[in-house]
From TrEMBL:
CDD domains: deoxycytidylate_deaminase. The lineage of its organism: Eukaryota, Metazoa, Ecdysozoa, Arthropoda, Hexapoda. Residues 28-170 form the CMP/dCMP-type deaminase domain. Its cofactor is Zn(2+). One of its GO terms (molecular function) is dCMP deaminase activity. This is Probable deoxycytidylate deaminase.
Length: 203
């Protein structure tokens, strides 16, 4: 016959306390997504400004990434990376602005038809007015950015005006840690050490 357990009694088989060995210094979600945008920026060949973007859905899944660069088929060596202030040429056809696809636009185009409605975009630089149009039209609802160094330029002031009108929230992101180090050699060295340990055990 079963007996009810009251406050003065203890169970005959108390649950064993679990020792939690979970690592404490893991990346939080926002740092992870912004770090992905920063890593994407490393792919850019732009000599002055490398920008990366990462789009995340409501389930915290990365659905697209992008960086600033030339369109497919337009060689990074054949088209100019110069800008007017470089003093190399006064011909607009010799300036990068004619050809570069921005990181945010590339991320949206790289979504391969996935719906971006309700998503969040992480970018290393606040979007220009042209990218803002694409962000709004694609359904992105939140924008997190690291730098807003061109905030006073009309093209970026126009972005904020459109975001405000369309109800797109935007916020400068402050990371919780100063750096994220990706060390390929650490993995290689770890495998080497394990291999040496295994050899030593067999001796």
């Amino acid at each position: 016959m079963s007996q009810e357990l009251n406050g003065s009694q203890t169970p005959t088989n108390p649950a064993k306390e679990v020792v939690n060995l979970k690592r404490k210094d893991y990346l939080n979600w926002d740092d992870y997504f912004m770090a992905t945008a920063l890593l994407s920026a490393k792919r850019s060949k732009d000599p002055s400004t490398q920008v990366g973007a990462c789009i995340v859905d409501t389930q915290k899944r990365i659905v697209a990434i992008g960086y600033n660069g030339f369109p497919r088929g337009c060689s990074d060596d054949a088209f100019s990376w110069s800008k007017p202030s470089d003093g190399i040429s006064t011909d607009p056809l010799e300036h990068k602005y004619m050809y570069v696809v921005h990181a945010e636009a590339n991320a949206i185009l790289n979504s391969n038809g996935t719906s971006l409605v309700g998503t969040r975009l992480y970018t290393t630089l606040f979007p220009c007015n042209e990218c803002a149009k694409l962000i709004i039209q694609s359904g992105v609802k939140e924008v997190y950015y690291m730098s807003d160094k061109y905030a006073e330029k009309p093209t970026f002031r126009g972005s904020k005006r459109m975001f405000d009108a369309a109800g797109i929230s935007y916020k400068r992101y402050t990371p919780t840690r100063k750096q994220v180090i990706i060390n390929f050699d650490e993995i290689i060295q770890e495998e080497l050490n394990i291999s040496l340990d295994m050899k030593a055990l067999k001796m």
